[in-house]
Amino acid sequence: MGPEYRVDPETGDWHIVAPARAARPTDLSGSSADACPFCPGREGLTPPAVFRTPADRRLPWQVRIVPNRYAVVAPGPGDAATGTHDVVIESPNHDGDLRFADSTQTAEVLGAMRERCRVLEARRPGAIVVFRNHGVAAGTSLRHPHSQIVSLDKVPPGLARRWRHARSFFDETGRCLAEDLACAERSAGVRVVEDTGDILVYQPRAASVSHQTVLIADDPSAGLAGASDAALSAMAEALPRVAAGLAAVRDDPAYNLVVHAGPVGDETAARWYRWYVGLYPRVSRRAGLELATGLGINPTVPEQTAPALRRAMAVRES
Ligand code: UDP
Ligand code: ZN
Question: Does the annotation list 39 as a binding residue?
Fold first, then answer.
């Protein structure tokens, strides 16, 4: 059976039933690169790359994007959960990680993601989601540094709600919500982790989890596909340092990184949505009350955790 959408009749939420996912391997018991499908020399274990850097195939690859062998969504009919699912292999180095990466490597990864998003956008999916899982509690199954890109033909209700919210804010105020929030955080200052002018790093006032962190570049694009070189450079410079700071301040927590983006193929979107990176550490578990109500319960105060992250980053860099 291919992946299939099933709608929860009570909540209207969608879920994907995807039994093929159960077959995916894990390598988390040790740090061995012995059988890793993402290591150089084992390219035959993945489908052929849909993108790689450098483009010259005589040179060893630095970043490879390959179709996911255990895709969450796949091309298909009817109720099928259709779309594409790629893995972005971020480095040839099995033991590498975003927190150890330099800005050049990170810019190469972000640039590869942008290229892939451009190709996917041209096919007019409903949404493109770029994300990275780090650590078992965040759902990682393989250690080798990688991210994922999923394009969905249909827009799931949770994402549609996010977009509707931003769109209504724009209709009421004429302003972009993400930009407005960034401005407000910048002037309040208390939750700012770093502000270079090109990029703002802050922890939102209503953070749903401890150390939830936003990185937003000065870039008027709704998605990664339209991001400027300057924005990618600024992001590439900040992201590994923030990941390293987070690892230092909370003992390398599991986290999910999500590139939040607006709708694909909506020419107005750049006016009311701006792409940004959200980091969501997995330091506490969602329990009964959260499940019953959708409430996030954050046991820490962003006004305190933001300065703590800032200090951890400063200590590392001094
Ligand atoms: N995977 C793959 N080819 C393989 C082994 C794994 O495409 O030979 C995929 C796997 O389906 C998974 C991804 O690599 O989606 C690894 O992702 P991650 O560890 O972030 O977490 P997961 O997606 O398993 O939750
Ligand atoms: Zn590897």
Answer: yes
Which of 39, 141, 146, 149 has most ligand 1 atoms within 8 Å of CB, for mutation? Answer: 141
Q: Is 288 helix (H, G, I), strand (E, B) or coil?
A: helix
Question: What is the C-alpha separation between 99 and 215, in angstroms, rounded?
Answer: 15
**222 CB neighbour count, 10 Å cutoff:** 27
CATH of domain 4-152: 3.30.428.10
Report the candidate in 51, 74, 69, 47 with the shortest Cα–Cα distance to residue 61: 51
Centre of ligand 2 from the C-alpha of residue 254, in Å:
19
What's the gap in Å between 143 CA and the centre of ligand 2?
A: 7
CA of 239: how far to CAs of 217, 258, 278, 313, in Å? 11, 12, 11, 11
Helix (H) or strand (E) holding 107: helix 103-122
State yes or no: pLDDT of 31 exceeds 60: no
Would the CATH topology of 4-152 be identical to that of 175-317?
Answer: yes
Of 85, 146, 211, 260, which one is the catalytic site residue? 146
Residue 40: pLDDT over 80: yes
| Ligand 1 atom with the shortest distance to the CA of 133 | 20
* pTM, entire model: 0.96
Residue 28 binned pLDDT confidence (cut-offs 50, 70, 90):
low
**CATH code for the domain defined by 175-317:** 3.30.428.10
Mean per-residue pLDDT of the chain:
95
Distance CA 39, CA 91 (A): 9
Residue 146 is a catalytic residue = yes
Q: Average the pLDDT over 248-273 and give the result.
A: 96
Domain ranges across the chain: 4-152, 175-317
Please indicate if the annotation marks 176 as binding a ligand. no
